Amino acid sequence: MWRSPFLVRFLTLCLRILVPDRCPVCGRGGVAPLEPFCRGCYEELMRIKQKRKRRCLRCGTVLVSEGRQGCLNCLNQRWYLDGLFVYGSYDGILRRAVQVIKFEDGFRVARGISEIVDLSDIPAVDLVVPVPLSKRRLLRRGFNQSLLLAEGISRRLGVTTAVEMLLKVRENPPQSLLEGCRRLNNPRGAYLWVSGETAAERILLVDDVLTTGATLNECARVLKSVGAGEVYGFVLARSDGGV
Ligand SMILES: [Zn+2]
Ligand SMILES: [Zn+2]
Q: What is the pLDDT of residues 197-241, one digit of tens each?
């Protein structure tokens, strides 16, 4: 069924005016320790920090054996990303929160979540770059959820957000529809750095959900081709079930 994101957001806004204390993630009311979440959602989102798993620093796969920085799948691939930081698995409350960011209440939930996520392992960077949406998708959604997250994160890190410096210039099939090595090459050529200046020395790319790491890797390749020295990635959630 077709639904207008603008209509959904308008109705959400109306509901919020009528019922101001409603938590956008679970729909329940209650005292919010951190706007806009209720206590239950806030504590559950905070608990993700403690449940952090060891992950491959390139593709984000959960690592089972000790002592490795990367997974076996990444050994033979060309990676441009210097490190990847994943807040949690794309399930449970994080999945619900991402859906709310995309389709219902992006501004408040993205801002709230960017206050919660653990940034302690991220090295010093000079610029935060959101993974862009294509123009068509941006028009349909009305905003880029990765930009909303990137703005909150760059505020906490005390650095600038790159707005419309990296663009998505080609639509590629969703990673979830492809298999194996086709996923890695799928985003090739889809991104372009359009700022007249060279990229900053150390960059943090921000995205909401990661499937294989190929998108971040391609963005990192583009950023390094225009002068970036180190490029790291931060994603809110990684799809660990191969979705
Ligand atoms: Zn809640
Ligand atoms: Zn890997």
A: 888 899 999 999 998 888 999 999 999 999 999 999 999 999 987
Instruction: Write the CATH number for 92.
Output: 3.40.50
Whether residue 26 is contained in a domain is answered as no
Please tell me the distance between residue 30's alpha carbon and the centre of ligand 2 in angstroms.
Answer: 41
Q: What pLDDT digit, counting tens, does each position of 99-121 carry?
A: 999 998 889 999 999 999 999 99
Residue at 179 is within a domain: yes
Q: Which ligand is nearest to the CA of 21?
A: 1
Q: Any idea which ligand is nearest the CA of 212?
A: 2
In a domain, 196, yes or no: yes
Cα 73 to middle of ligand 2, angstroms: 6
Indicate the number of domains in the chain.
1
Rounded to whole angstroms, how far apart are CA atoms 6 and 111?
19
Q: How far is CA 137 from CA 113, 133, 141, 226, in A?
A: 23, 6, 6, 26
